[in-house]
Amino acid sequence: MALTRRSRKQARYPLAGRVIAITGGARGLGLATALELRNAGAHVAIGDIDEAQVKESAAGAGILGAQVDVTSRDSVGDFMDLVERELGPIDVYVNNAGVMPVGPLLGYQPGLISRTVDIDLLGVIHGTQLAARRMVERGDGHIVNVASIAGRLAAPGLSIYNAAKFGVIGFSEAASGELGPLGVAVSTVQPSFARTALIDGIDFPGPTVTPEAVARGVRYAIETRRLHTVVPGYISGVAGMGIMPGPLKRRLLSQRRYYRLFMSPDTERRGDYDARVAQS
């Protein structure tokens, strides 16, 4: 979603001077988002499990970088403490860290299932709660949870990822209802599949997006405090397919190979990403 002239007029919450912390910021969507927000005048910090890469990326961008493990509440709390010591109170916290294993449900190892849910869902819940506690004390703040169009539309081969991202959207809607009256906004950004290592080894026939387009979507969500932002905007109607009758939905999606797409990825092309997920 590009920031059109109309959407810029809707930017009620300017970014200049605001302190923004982003998880999963060493590469891909997180780093693109950090650069977009930095260029808009925000004071940005990125955290990532990959300490060497996050420090290299931060140094290259001229921003603050630190290791953070989103599956550890203590680690997330330490990251927030560091950001606030170095940059000031966190105005916006972006839960971006995530992994996307693909393949048949019967082939998932228990450890990978747990790790995916720990990062993609529990990491968002813990990050939201810890950030919100700080923001509620000040009566203002914003939490952006990066979900996915896969949080609206399920497909074979994505069962665990679907479960986590559906959870992120439902959790965010509930949290928004609770925290909004306390001055803290909660938003989701729901991108289509981005052109990052997430889709290595998958011959995706549908719309994909660049990390920079997702970054603009995050910026739009922050500037407007909109509850849900789909990127690209023209696929917003896809979210409605989630409430279609099952047979009709399967018939429509099968025409686009969506229902077979993630069941048999090219494991060789996907090897580097899968290895990084296993070590995360």
Describe this structure in words.
This protein is α/β, with parallel strands linked by helices and 280 residues long. It has a single domain, classed as Rossmann fold (3-Layer(aba) Sandwich), CATH 3.40.50.720. The chain has 10 helices and 9 strands. The chain has helices spanning 5-9, 28-39, 51-61, 73-86, 110-138, 159-179, 211-224, 236-239, 246-254, 271-279, and strands at residues 19-23, 43-48, 64-67, 92-95, 141-146, 184-191, 193-194, 208-209, 228-231. Helix 2 packs across helix 7, helix 4 (73-86) packs parallel to helix 5 and helix 5 runs parallel beside helix 6 (159-179). The radius of gyration is 18 Å and the shape is globular. InterPro entries: NAD(P)-bd_dom_sf, Sc_DH/Rdtase_CS, SDR_fam. Belongs to the short-chain dehydrogenases/reductases (SDR) family.
Layout of secondary structure:
Layout: H1 5-9, E1 19-23, H2 28-39, E2 43-48, H3 51-61, E3 64-67, H4 73-86, E4 92-95, H5 110-138, E5 141-146, H6 159-179, E6 184-191, E7 193-194, E8 208-209, H7 211-224, E9 228-231, H8 236-239, H9 246-254, H10 271-279
Parallel strand pairs: 1-2, 1-4, 2-3, 4-5, 5-6, 6-9, 7-8
Count every helix, treating DSSP H or I runs of 4 or more residues as helices. Answer: 10
Got a strand count? 9
Give a short account of the largest sheet.
7 strands, parallel
The strand line-up of the biggest sheet is: 3-2-1-4-5-6-9
Structural class: alpha/beta
Which range does the strand content fall in? 5-15%
Distance between the termini: 30 Å
Cα Rg: 18 Å
Shape: globular
Order of helices and strands: HEHEHEHEHEHEEEHEHHH
CATH architecture verdict: 3-Layer(aba) Sandwich
Low-confidence sequence ranges: 1-8
- Identify the CATH homologous superfamily: NAD(P)-binding Rossmann-like Domain
Q: Helix coverage percent of residues?
A: 40-55%
Number of domains: 1
Average pLDDT over all residues: 88
What name is given to the CATH topology? Rossmann fold
CATH top level?
Alpha Beta
